[in-house]
Amino acid sequence: MSSTVEDALAPAEAEAFRAQVREFLSKHAKGIERGEGSVGVGRAFQQKLAEAGLAGLTYPKEYGGAGLTKAHERIYREEYGKFPDMTYELVISHGMCLPVLNQFGTEEQKREFMPDNIAARTMWCQMFSEPGAGSDVASLQTKAELDGDEWVLNGQKVWTTLAHVCDYGVIIARTNPDAPKHAGISMFIMDMRAKGVEIRPIHQIDGGRHFNEIFLTDVRIPKSWLLGELNNGWNQATAMLMFERVAIGTGSTSGVTHTLADGLIEVAKKNGKISDPVMRQELMKIYSEETAKSLVAMRTRAEMKAGRVPGPGGSLGKLHGARIAKHSRTVINHLLGAESDAWEGTSSRGEAWARRMLNSFQSSIAGGTDEIQRNIIGDRVLGLPREPMVDKDVPFKDLKVGTQRS
Question: How many domains does the chain have?
């Protein structure tokens, strides 16, 4: 079966599957500390999930999936929401790269790459942004030139999450500089360990090193690793960004959840601030926002029921999450006070919440800035007039964009 199978289960079948999922999660979803070892723990959990026949639930069996229905996936998400999130480090590999492989890959590519991706035997990253081509990704300058049976890539990517621990990546590069900037881009599969790939970490404000910049010097990949159609990379990249925003905006669970609010309410109880009327109001705002975000996510996933590429509605959840993250910073600071600025030991509650505050700033940038999300919502959801594009029909080689000045 695949995700196109009728989305309905007999009550007995649904309950049996729910019991199977609950038993697996009770045994294996024990929690995971965010840090250097979280990727390995997440991959190990995913491999156990694959061994149990619970990975890639709606992907066909011939591509490494379980071949089940959206109803099975919904049950899994409902149960998974009751346990610690074990696979948050795989959100790009599974939430973005995997559906793009499934959507645009050839039969050979799907059979070669999807089973290992689903089981986390390999991990994937996304390489879109460049210096001078962030929000305007179509201004990218990384180029791919065909040399016999190989593509040769040269250029630079930046803000690539987890590139340093990934085996493969999905990359977009310019293949036709004579076409307008949106029309001359193609998408490829790239080996992250290939000769000519240099990965440099970007040190984050919280001490982490999740992001990277990547330098490509005469990197050779097989001709067959073109992903999708030649010079159709912008349309495919747009689809991938939609998958990204759905992955970020809807998370790994299903149903109504308010995990952040629940955690902050517990802190308020322990700190004796739960009776403060102002604090109660702020906590209720986060609770309400998370509830609304969950409902938007449920609607978005319902729209994906037929297995189609998600639409621009994914930007609603993405923007909603960024707003919640921004609001939470003030609440966390008021609840913990100096404890979120200085602490003792390595397992302090203050440190954990301080890291959450610092990490929250990326919510308004990763996956497209808030401004970009508002543009998408205004244009493609509300039907408002688009902003003018003066370079729409100009060949890329004639533009002075990004770092291209001569």
Answer: 3
